Amino acid sequence: MQTIPVENVPGSNLQIRVGDGVIDEAAVAGEMQFHPAADRDTAARSAARALVIQELLRQRAITLGLHSDGFSDPGENDIARMLEQELTVPEPDEEACLRFYHHHPERFCEPPRYRVRHILLAAAPDDAEERDRQYRQSTRLIKTLTQHKEYFTDLAQRYSSCPSRDQGGDLGWLSPGQTVAELDRALARLPEGLHDRPLASRYGWHVVHVDEHREKRPLSYNAVQERVVRELTEQATRMALRHYLLALEAEIGVEGFSLDDDGMDGSLMR
Protein backbone atom coordinates (compact mmCIF):
# COMPACT_ATOMS: atom_id res chain seq x y z
CA MET A 1 0.00 0.00 0.00
CA GLN A 2 1.27 3.47 -0.90
CA THR A 3 1.57 5.72 2.18
CA ILE A 4 2.53 9.34 2.68
CA PRO A 5 5.31 10.21 5.19
CA VAL A 6 3.87 11.78 8.31
CA GLU A 7 6.02 14.90 7.74
CA ASN A 8 3.56 15.80 4.98
CA VAL A 9 0.35 15.47 7.00
CA PRO A 10 -2.25 16.62 6.45
CA GLY A 11 -1.81 15.74 2.77
CA SER A 12 -4.21 14.91 0.04
CA ASN A 13 -3.45 11.18 0.06
CA LEU A 14 -2.66 10.61 3.72
CA GLN A 15 -3.45 7.10 4.86
CA ILE A 16 -2.17 5.29 7.94
CA ARG A 17 -3.16 1.67 8.40
CA VAL A 18 -3.35 0.15 11.88
CA GLY A 19 -4.18 -3.53 11.62
CA ASP A 20 -7.52 -3.62 9.85
CA GLY A 21 -8.26 0.07 10.56
CA VAL A 22 -7.43 3.15 8.53
CA ILE A 23 -6.66 6.66 9.79
CA ASP A 24 -7.24 9.21 7.05
CA GLU A 25 -6.50 12.88 6.54
CA ALA A 26 -9.85 14.02 7.93
CA ALA A 27 -9.30 12.13 11.20
CA VAL A 28 -5.86 13.67 11.66
CA ALA A 29 -7.18 17.15 10.85
CA GLY A 30 -9.96 16.73 13.41
CA GLU A 31 -7.52 15.57 16.09
CA MET A 32 -5.07 18.42 15.53
CA GLN A 33 -7.14 20.84 17.63
CA PHE A 34 -6.06 18.85 20.72
CA HIS A 35 -2.35 19.15 19.89
CA PRO A 36 -1.34 22.82 19.72
CA ALA A 37 2.19 23.25 18.40
CA ALA A 38 4.52 25.83 16.93
CA ASP A 39 3.78 24.69 13.38
CA ARG A 40 1.20 22.68 11.46
CA ASP A 41 3.45 19.70 10.72
CA THR A 42 4.32 19.18 14.37
CA ALA A 43 0.64 19.35 15.36
CA ALA A 44 -0.23 16.88 12.60
CA ARG A 45 2.45 14.43 13.72
CA SER A 46 1.23 14.61 17.31
CA ALA A 47 -2.36 14.12 16.20
CA ALA A 48 -1.46 11.13 14.00
CA ARG A 49 0.54 9.59 16.83
CA ALA A 50 -2.36 9.94 19.27
CA LEU A 51 -4.78 8.35 16.80
CA VAL A 52 -2.44 5.43 16.14
CA ILE A 53 -2.15 4.80 19.89
CA GLN A 54 -5.92 4.99 20.33
CA GLU A 55 -6.48 2.55 17.48
CA LEU A 56 -3.90 0.08 18.79
CA LEU A 57 -5.53 0.10 22.21
CA ARG A 58 -9.02 -0.19 20.72
CA GLN A 59 -8.12 -3.22 18.64
CA ARG A 60 -6.33 -4.90 21.54
CA ALA A 61 -9.34 -4.39 23.82
CA ILE A 62 -11.64 -5.90 21.20
CA THR A 63 -9.33 -8.91 20.85
CA LEU A 64 -9.50 -9.44 24.62
CA GLY A 65 -13.28 -9.00 24.66
CA LEU A 66 -13.05 -6.04 27.02
CA HIS A 67 -15.80 -3.85 25.60
CA SER A 68 -18.62 -3.34 28.02
CA ASP A 69 -21.68 -4.39 26.02
CA GLY A 70 -19.99 -6.59 23.44
CA PHE A 71 -21.33 -4.52 20.55
CA SER A 72 -19.97 -0.95 20.69
CA ASP A 73 -16.32 0.01 20.64
CA PRO A 74 -14.39 -0.16 23.94
CA GLY A 75 -14.73 2.96 26.07
CA GLU A 76 -12.21 4.72 28.28
CA ASN A 77 -13.07 2.51 31.25
CA ASP A 78 -12.52 -0.60 29.16
CA ILE A 79 -9.12 0.67 28.02
CA ALA A 80 -8.15 1.58 31.58
CA ARG A 81 -9.17 -1.87 32.80
CA MET A 82 -7.15 -3.50 30.05
CA LEU A 83 -4.04 -1.52 30.91
CA GLU A 84 -4.40 -2.43 34.57
CA GLN A 85 -4.49 -6.09 33.57
CA GLU A 86 -1.72 -6.05 30.98
CA LEU A 87 0.85 -3.54 32.20
CA THR A 88 3.50 -4.76 34.59
CA VAL A 89 4.86 -1.85 36.60
CA PRO A 90 7.53 -2.77 39.15
CA GLU A 91 7.33 -1.03 42.50
CA PRO A 92 10.48 0.95 43.33
CA ASP A 93 12.47 -0.53 46.20
CA GLU A 94 14.11 1.48 48.98
CA GLU A 95 17.52 1.44 47.31
CA ALA A 96 16.14 2.88 44.06
CA CYS A 97 14.21 5.54 45.97
CA LEU A 98 17.25 6.65 47.96
CA ARG A 99 19.39 6.74 44.82
CA PHE A 100 16.82 8.90 43.02
CA TYR A 101 16.55 11.22 46.02
CA HIS A 102 20.32 11.74 46.24
CA HIS A 103 20.77 12.16 42.47
CA HIS A 104 18.08 14.85 42.19
CA PRO A 105 18.50 17.13 45.23
CA GLU A 106 17.03 20.12 43.34
CA ARG A 107 13.64 18.37 43.16
CA PHE A 108 13.35 17.88 46.87
CA CYS A 109 13.86 21.29 48.39
CA GLU A 110 11.71 23.67 50.34
CA PRO A 111 11.42 26.73 48.06
CA PRO A 112 12.86 30.08 49.10
CA ARG A 113 10.49 32.19 51.16
CA TYR A 114 10.23 35.91 51.75
CA ARG A 115 8.45 37.79 54.52
CA VAL A 116 7.35 40.96 52.73
CA ARG A 117 5.59 44.24 53.37
CA HIS A 118 4.69 46.63 50.58
CA ILE A 119 2.85 49.81 49.69
CA LEU A 120 1.15 49.83 46.30
CA LEU A 121 0.80 53.16 44.54
CA ALA A 122 -1.75 52.16 41.90
CA ALA A 123 -1.44 53.32 38.29
CA ALA A 124 -2.65 51.67 35.09
CA PRO A 125 0.06 50.63 32.59
CA ASP A 126 -1.32 52.94 29.89
CA ASP A 127 -1.72 55.99 32.14
CA ALA A 128 1.70 57.61 31.78
CA GLU A 129 0.76 60.74 33.72
CA GLU A 130 -0.54 58.80 36.72
CA ARG A 131 2.40 56.41 36.68
CA ASP A 132 4.78 59.34 36.75
CA ARG A 133 2.88 60.95 39.62
CA GLN A 134 2.79 57.73 41.63
CA TYR A 135 6.47 57.08 40.95
CA ARG A 136 7.35 60.44 42.46
CA GLN A 137 5.07 59.72 45.42
CA SER A 138 6.68 56.32 46.00
CA THR A 139 10.17 57.85 46.00
CA ARG A 140 9.03 60.34 48.64
CA LEU A 141 7.70 57.47 50.75
CA ILE A 142 11.00 55.61 50.45
CA LYS A 143 12.90 58.72 51.50
CA THR A 144 10.66 59.06 54.56
CA LEU A 145 10.97 55.36 55.45
CA THR A 146 14.75 55.47 55.11
CA GLN A 147 14.76 57.84 58.08
CA HIS A 148 11.68 56.49 59.91
CA LYS A 149 11.13 52.78 59.30
CA GLU A 150 8.57 52.74 62.08
CA TYR A 151 6.17 54.69 59.84
CA PHE A 152 5.68 51.80 57.39
CA THR A 153 2.37 50.60 58.84
CA ASP A 154 0.89 54.09 58.95
CA LEU A 155 2.00 54.93 55.42
CA ALA A 156 0.68 51.63 54.05
CA GLN A 157 -2.72 52.25 55.63
CA ARG A 158 -2.77 55.77 54.22
CA TYR A 159 -1.41 55.29 50.68
CA SER A 160 -1.54 51.66 49.61
CA SER A 161 -4.16 50.45 47.11
CA CYS A 162 -3.56 46.80 48.05
CA PRO A 163 -5.96 45.06 50.48
CA SER A 164 -2.86 44.30 52.58
CA ARG A 165 -3.01 47.92 53.74
CA ASP A 166 -5.36 46.73 56.50
CA GLN A 167 -2.42 44.68 57.82
CA GLY A 168 0.01 47.56 57.45
CA GLY A 169 1.11 46.29 54.03
CA ASP A 170 2.10 42.86 55.37
CA LEU A 171 1.92 40.17 52.66
CA GLY A 172 3.16 37.45 55.00
CA TRP A 173 5.45 34.69 53.79
CA LEU A 174 5.68 34.40 50.00
CA SER A 175 7.15 31.64 47.85
CA PRO A 176 7.99 31.95 44.15
CA GLY A 177 4.83 32.20 42.06
CA GLN A 178 2.61 33.59 44.81
CA THR A 179 2.62 37.24 43.79
CA VAL A 180 2.52 39.30 40.60
CA ALA A 181 5.27 38.18 38.21
CA GLU A 182 7.17 41.47 38.19
CA LEU A 183 7.41 41.56 41.97
CA ASP A 184 8.06 37.83 42.12
CA ARG A 185 11.18 38.16 39.94
CA ALA A 186 12.49 41.05 42.04
CA LEU A 187 12.06 39.23 45.35
CA ALA A 188 14.48 36.52 44.22
CA ARG A 189 17.34 39.04 44.26
CA LEU A 190 16.36 41.60 46.91
CA PRO A 191 18.29 41.67 50.20
CA GLU A 192 16.52 42.08 53.50
CA GLY A 193 15.40 45.57 54.39
CA LEU A 194 13.80 48.50 52.58
CA HIS A 195 14.46 48.50 48.84
CA ASP A 196 15.88 51.88 47.83
CA ARG A 197 13.84 52.21 44.61
CA PRO A 198 10.18 51.72 43.69
CA LEU A 199 9.44 48.45 41.89
CA ALA A 200 7.19 48.63 38.84
CA SER A 201 4.37 46.18 38.06
CA ARG A 202 1.25 46.20 35.89
CA TYR A 203 -0.60 47.57 38.94
CA GLY A 204 1.65 50.55 39.61
CA TRP A 205 4.65 51.10 41.88
CA HIS A 206 5.58 49.09 44.95
CA VAL A 207 7.50 50.29 47.97
CA VAL A 208 8.94 47.02 49.26
CA HIS A 209 10.43 45.96 52.58
CA VAL A 210 11.78 42.42 52.90
CA ASP A 211 11.59 41.52 56.58
CA GLU A 212 13.22 38.11 56.19
CA HIS A 213 14.62 36.01 53.36
CA ARG A 214 14.96 32.23 53.75
CA GLU A 215 16.95 30.41 51.08
CA LYS A 216 15.69 27.13 49.68
CA ARG A 217 16.80 24.15 51.73
CA PRO A 218 16.84 20.41 51.12
CA LEU A 219 14.06 18.34 52.60
CA SER A 220 14.84 15.12 54.42
CA TYR A 221 14.25 11.82 52.67
CA ASN A 222 11.57 10.90 55.22
CA ALA A 223 9.69 14.09 54.40
CA VAL A 224 9.55 13.33 50.65
CA GLN A 225 9.59 9.52 50.57
CA GLU A 226 6.01 9.24 49.31
CA ARG A 227 6.73 11.76 46.57
CA VAL A 228 9.88 9.88 45.51
CA VAL A 229 7.91 6.64 45.28
CA ARG A 230 5.21 8.37 43.26
CA GLU A 231 7.67 9.92 40.80
CA LEU A 232 9.52 6.65 40.24
CA THR A 233 6.23 4.78 39.81
CA GLU A 234 5.09 7.33 37.22
CA GLN A 235 8.38 6.94 35.34
CA ALA A 236 8.09 3.16 35.41
CA THR A 237 4.47 3.37 34.22
CA ARG A 238 5.40 5.54 31.25
CA MET A 239 8.22 3.20 30.32
CA ALA A 240 6.02 0.10 30.64
CA LEU A 241 3.32 1.73 28.52
CA ARG A 242 5.85 2.70 25.88
CA HIS A 243 7.11 -0.88 25.61
CA TYR A 244 3.54 -2.18 25.58
CA LEU A 245 2.56 0.11 22.69
CA LEU A 246 5.66 -0.76 20.69
CA ALA A 247 4.82 -4.44 21.17
CA LEU A 248 1.25 -3.81 19.99
CA GLU A 249 2.58 -1.92 16.98
CA ALA A 250 4.73 -4.92 16.02
CA GLU A 251 1.92 -7.41 16.66
CA ILE A 252 -1.01 -5.59 15.05
CA GLY A 253 0.99 -3.82 12.35
CA VAL A 254 1.17 -0.13 11.51
CA GLU A 255 1.88 1.21 8.03
CA GLY A 256 2.58 4.85 7.21
CA PHE A 257 3.70 5.81 10.71
CA SER A 258 6.08 4.64 13.45
CA LEU A 259 5.72 5.04 17.19
CA ASP A 260 9.39 4.29 17.75
CA ASP A 261 10.56 7.87 18.15
CA ASP A 262 11.28 10.30 20.98
CA GLY A 263 7.95 12.08 20.66
CA MET A 264 5.74 9.24 21.81
CA ASP A 265 5.72 9.95 25.56
CA GLY A 266 3.61 13.08 25.25
CA SER A 267 0.72 11.15 23.69
CA LEU A 268 0.81 8.02 25.83
CA MET A 269 -2.06 8.79 28.14
CA ARG A 270 -4.42 10.65 25.81
From TrEMBL:
It catalyses: [protein]-peptidylproline (omega=180) = [protein]-peptidylproline (omega=0). Residues 111-212 form the PpiC domain. The keyword Isomerase applies. GO terms for molecular function: peptidyl-prolyl cis-trans isomerase activity. It holds the Pfam family Rotamase. Keywords: Isomerase, Rotamase. The keyword Isomerase applies. Transmembrane segments: none annotated. Its EC number is 5.2.1.8. It comes from the Bacteria. InterPro entries: PPIase_dom_sf (IPR046357), PPIase_PpiC (IPR000297), PrsA_foldase (IPR050245). Belongs to the PpiC/parvulin rotamase family. This is peptidylprolyl isomerase. It comes from Halomonas cupida. The lineage of its organism: Bacteria, Pseudomonadati, Pseudomonadota, Gammaproteobacteria, Oceanospirillales.
